Amino acid sequence: MLIRNKLMLRFTLxxxxxxxxxxxxxxxxxxxxxxxxxxxxxxxxxxxxxxxxIRPGKxxxxxxxxxxxxxxxxxxxxxxxxxxPGGELRYSSADNIxxxxxxxxxxxxxxxxxxxxxxxxxxxxxxxxxxxxGEQYAIFVSAQDQVGWARLYQLGLLLLLGNVGALALSILxxxxxxxxxxAPVARIGRQAGRISATNLGRRLSExxxxxxxxxxxxxxxxxxxxxxxxxxxxxxxxAHASHELRTPLTTLTGTLETALAYDAxxx
Length: 267
Prior knowledge:
Elements: H1 3-54, H2 58-61, E1 79-83, E2 89-92, H3 99-104, E3 114-120, E4 123-132, E5 135-144, H4 146-193, H5 212-262
Antiparallel strand pairs: 1-2, 1-5, 3-4, 4-5
Helix pairs in contact: 1-4
C-alpha cells in the first residue's frame, strides 16, 4: 500500500473514531435527558392524581363527582392505577390495564418517593407511594413518550447523516493533506531520478533546511559528493595508468618494428 493511502486511511480512522465517540455521547446524553424529563412528567401526573382523587376523599366514596374517568390523562397512551392501604384497586383509568404486574410492585414503593419501574417497549412506568391521613396509597402511572422518541429518532438520523458526510469530507481531506505532506518526498524522488553517472555534480534541494526532509536531502547530497569523488578518483587513476603504460608500450612497439626491419625472418 502506498504511504499516501496509509496516511489517508489512518487520518480517516482517527477522525471517524472521534466523530462516532462524540455522536454516541450526544445521543446518550439526549436519551438520558429524555428519560429523566418523561419520568418527571409521569411523576407530576401521579402527584396530580393523588391530589385530585385521594386527598378530596373521592376514592373513599367511589364518586368522582364532576371528574370523568379519563380526565386526568394528559400523556399519550397514559394509564393510571391507584391502590388503597390494603392493596385493593381503588381507581383505574382503563379496564385493560395489567394489574397483576402493578400488584407485584406494591412492595417496592416508598412514600413520597418516585420509583422508576422500567419500560415495556416504548411504555414507561413509574410508581409512587402517597400518604393521606396516615394511610399509604400506591399510584402507578405509565405512558408512551411519543414526542420524545420521535425527537430522539430525528437526532439519531441527523447524527448518522452528519457522520456519513463528515466521513466523506475526512477522506477527501486525508487524501489532500497526505498528498501535500508527501509532495516534498516526490520532489526529492524526481530530482534523484535525474542524477546519473554523467552529472554527479547535481544536488538535491534541501527545502527549508530545517525539517526531516531537509536532513534526508543533505544525507543524499553527502552520498552524491562521495560518489562524485570516487568517480573522479577512478578517472584520475585511469588517466595516470594510461599515461604510465603508454611510454613502455610505445618503446616496445618501436623496438619490434626496428627488429622486423633488420631481420625479415622474425615471426
